[in-house]
Amino acid sequence: MIADMLRFMVGLAAWAAGTVIAVCVAWLGANVVIRNAGIGSGIPVVNATVLPAPTTSSPAPTPPAVAQPTAGAEHKPKGTAPSPSATAPASPAASPAVGEVHAYALAGGNVTLNLADGSVQLVTAVPKAGYSVQTWSGTGWLRVDFSSGPQVSSLIASWYEHAPTITVTN
Question: Which strand (E) or helix (H) includes residue 13?
Answer without folding.
Answer: helix 2-37
